[in-house]
Amino acid sequence: MGIFRSYGLRLQRKRWRIRAIRKRRELKRVAIRTGQIRSDDLLLFCTQRNEGIRLPYFLEYYRKMGVGHFFFVDNDSDDGSLDYLADQPDVSVWSTKASYKRARFGVDWLNWLQMKFAHGHWVLTVDPDEFLVFPFCDTRPLRALTDWLDASSIKSFSAMLLDMYPKGRLDEQPYQSGQNPIDIACWFDSGNYTISRNHSFGNLWIQGGPRSRVFFPDDPAKAPALNKVPLVKWDKRYAYVSSTHMLLPRGLNQVYDEWGGEKASGVLLHAKFLDTFGEKAREELERSQHYAGSVEYKAYAERIKEDPQLWCKWSERYINWRQLEILGLMSKGNWA
């Protein structure tokens, strides 16, 4: 990378950090328990709106994984989820009625909180419908992974977003609060993924899966990105650029081996497609707070009216992380 391009990225990172500092004024403190955070705690950051039905299992899942403290930004929920989060002993929560879109889809809010509270911690940034699976996660806690990353001088860990869905209609089996959503949405596409490299930020760009196959069959380039860097040893100088797809400094995005080998990586099981999806898609389409004029949610709404199912004869039923490694969707690299 040339010196001018490198300088341009440093200026861009400074811009995002300044923007996050300004956006802090949009956040209202609701329940702040940051004083109980220990120096070695794993932290999780999340934005949410009306995800009350998902939150009990989400918190249980990541508590068992070893997360020590949760940071939530609630974006004007009216389903009781803000009060629920405020009552949790290991959660700090802020609320805002400001525009999700004008906060770069929540990135500015989380960049500020990470800048203020996450320096020196391993940080996991996920949505309420994303569940991290990593090598040996059935026998080892997240701390084992971050200890190995520290020992290997690795500061970031990638995870492909894997869309999960049920067999049959999405609205056929109601989801119950506290239930593991993967018990219902237990199928996924094992192939039809494309990978390209973003030369500006150094990250890989992954698209495909059921959202490309079903919602964007005629224009797969419009399908959502599936590449994520959700786990980072945070420094107050860092900043996410676009969701968790990429961040700055640029080197944090180089989570793959350029010389023919494989670096350890994980998968985020994405449990978006439950019986709640139709109503959620209509709500988000009406709010128009998502990327590119909510083109993604327009495609959801139109397609779901025609045929509310994603399963096909090539769908694969989820078993465990080893299955995902065999299929080439994640790797344990040299972690053994």
TrEMBL record:
Top-rank taxon: Bacteria
Identification of the protein by name: Glycosyl transferase family 2
Organism: Sulfitobacter pacificus
